[in-house]
Write a structure and sequence with these properties.
Structural class: alpha+beta
Number of helices: 19
GO molecular function: peptide transmembrane transporter activity
Number of domains: 2
GO biological process, one term: peptide transport
Shape: globular
Main location: periplasm
Distance between the termini: 25 Å
Subcellular location: Periplasm
InterPro entries: Peptide/Ni-bd, SBP_5, SBP_5_dom
Number of strands: 21
Largest sheet: 11 strands, mixed
CATH architecture of the largest domain: 3-Layer(aba) Sandwich
Mean pLDDT: 92
Helix content: 25-40%
Radius of gyration: 25 Å
Strand content: 15-25%
Low-confidence stretches: 1-24
């Protein structure tokens, strides 16, 4: 243990450690985190798509507008101090924030915005689709994003409300990079891609000063950050894959935060450690393929909602990992619907089936990823549904096998989860409430098409109308209405919203963990 601690502190924080020294807590101006970061493929914001990469970039880069540390539910000004929407012209004009600089010292210019968006579209790497859905291409990006002094005008094609476009620009590939610094490090026309995968060129509260794949990431405070310098002068993220090792490091005071503890380990932490729970954006659901004749009666869907032991699961093996949530948009963001009208009621489910003339037993195969907690959820569903004569034959498989079967629409019932690609309710509304073409050869990456549910035309129309609605309050109401309809009238039974439990030292305050990895912030952290 002491050898690990000495290596951690000496290499990462350059602290002098004498032989036989008594080891104290981590430095007052450094935040030390243990987590599994071996998922990182890229750190360039034009390429990064992994969870850990998103968390790191959220602390290195700003966007024109962003969900910031002070309130991750509010879309706030970032590098743009203000903006004006022209719905008819399908455009937004942003005024750049005065005095903002990159960590390099270079001023943040309107030209950097144009460069950043052009770079994403031209490189066309994994997250580029988030921006290109606005109708942007390498050929037209010069016309779609224009600069006039300290103003940037962004245009789009398609019937999108400006509120939707703002959320697109607040997503990961909307990060603004320092054109001067990036192009100084361009090699063979790569737009600085190779360099940005081990360095940073942002205006955010931290700078990437060391990255060793599957070993560590070190961030250093940007003392000139326009929104105030962080209290932590360094953030060290140490790759520790084993949850048991994370627990040991945390309880011994060698780290400040452990990100990947199991529920059992959470329950075994000592008195010097606290546990914080953060709702996550992923929703978990049970769905019925409408290509299976026995599952097409809406009475089956309604009865199913009363055969899920929501409380039984969240109070036992899912405790701390998930909370009851029965709508497609996650709790904690504008447009969410947080009512949970359904509970485990076998007698009511039986009555619904009897009133509809449904003959039981019904035998159904249930595909599930062969790992916890999915297999545990499946067994609970199997027990609950059997009480009403619906018998699940559980078919476990790898994630790839299960998802491939789902995409091919060859399952009967499916237990899976879904997370938004960007934090606008349309991202999930399209997945759960829209299916304009249910043909087998009209593949769509949505839960509706994959379950062969021919969504009623009026619901499709409402999804399109909400996407185009200019008034955000009205738009939010439309998404609430859509969630209520899907909750009551679809073959998709949404059960839970994931939660993340993090162990941290009692003296750590101000750590922010929003609903996904893009909303993890260290800027406000202090240590008493």
């Amino acid at each position: 243990m002491k050898l690990f601690r000495a290596a951690l502190m000496a290499s990462a924080l350059a602290l002098p450690l004498a032989a036989g020294a008594a080891y104290a807590a981590t430095p007052a101006d450094a935040l030390v985190i243990a987590q599994n970061i071996d998922d990182i493929v890229a750190l360039d914001p034009a390429q990064a798509y992994e969870f850990s990469a998103g968390e790191i970039n959220a602390n290195l880069y700003d966007k024109l507008v962003q969900y910031d540390a002070e309130d991750t539910t509010v879309l706030a000004p970032g590098l743009a101090s203000e903006w004006v929407a022209d719905e008819e012209a399908k455009s937004l004009t942003f005024t750049m924030r005065e005095g903002a600089t990159f960590a390099s010292g270079n001023p943040v210019r309107a030209e950097d915005v144009k460069f950043s968006f052009t770079r994403v579209v031209t490189l066309n790497l994994t997250p580029a689709f988030i921006l290109t859905q606005l109708g942007w291409t390498p050929d037209n990006i010069g016309e779609m994003v224009t600069v006039d002094g300290n103003k940037v005008t962004v245009k789009w094609t398609g019937d999108f409300a400006s509120a939707f476009v703002l959320n697109v620009l607040a997503a990961r590939p909307g990060a603004i990079v320092d054109e001067v610094l990036v192009m100084q490090n361009e090699v063979d026309g790569d737009w600085g891609n190779a360099w940005l995968n081990t360095n940073s060129a942002g205006s955010g509260p931290f700078v990437l000063t060391d990255y060793r794949p599957a070993e560590l990431v070190r961030l250093t405070a940007n003392e000139n950050y326009w929104n105030g310098a962080p209290a932590m002068k360094q953030v060290l993220i140490r790759h520790v894959a084993e949850a048991a090792t994370q627990q040991l490091l945390l309880t011994s005071g060698d780290i400040d935060i452990a990100k990947n503890l199991t529920p059992d380990q959470i329950g075994g932490l000592g008195e010097n450690v606290k546990v914080e729970t953060y709702p996550q954006a992923a929703v978990h659901f049970l769905s019925f393929n409408q290509k299976t004749e026995e599952l097409t009666d809406p009475a089956i869907w309604e009865a199913a909602r009363y055969l899920v032991d929501y409380d039984g699961m969240t109070e036992t093996f899912l405790k701390g990992q998930m909370e009851k949530h029965q709508a497609f948009w996650p709790k904690g963001f504008p447009g969410s619907y947080d009512e949970t009208p359904y509970s485990y009621d076998v007698e009511k489910a039986k009555q619904i089936l009897a009133d509809a003339g449904i003959e039981t037993p019904i035998n159904v195969t249930l595909d599930v990823i062969n790992s916890a907690p999915f297999t545990d959820i499946a067994q609970s569903l199997q027990a609950g549904f059997s009480e009403a004569g619906i018998n699940f034959d559980i078919l476990p498989g790898t994630g790839a096998q299960v998802i491939t079967k789902y995409r091919e629409r060859t399952h009967q019932a499916m237990l899976l989860y879904w997370g938004p690609d960007f934090m606008d309710p349309h991202s999930n509304a399209k997945a759960f409430a829209y299916n304009s073409n249910n043909a087998d050869d009209a593949y769509a990456a949505t839960t509706t098409w994959r379950n062969a549910w021919a969504v009623p035309q009026e619901m499709n129309d409402e999804v399109n109308a909400a996407l185009a609605e200019a008034d955000q309050s009205v738009r939010n109401e439309m998404y609430v209405d859509l969630q209520q309809k899907v909750q009551a009238e679809s073959p998709i039974i949404i059960m839970f919203q994931a939660a993340l439990q993090i162990g941290m030292a009692n003296n750590v305050e101000g750590y922010v963990n929003g609903s996904n990895s893009d909303f993890v912030y260290y800027r406000l952290v202090t240590k008493d």
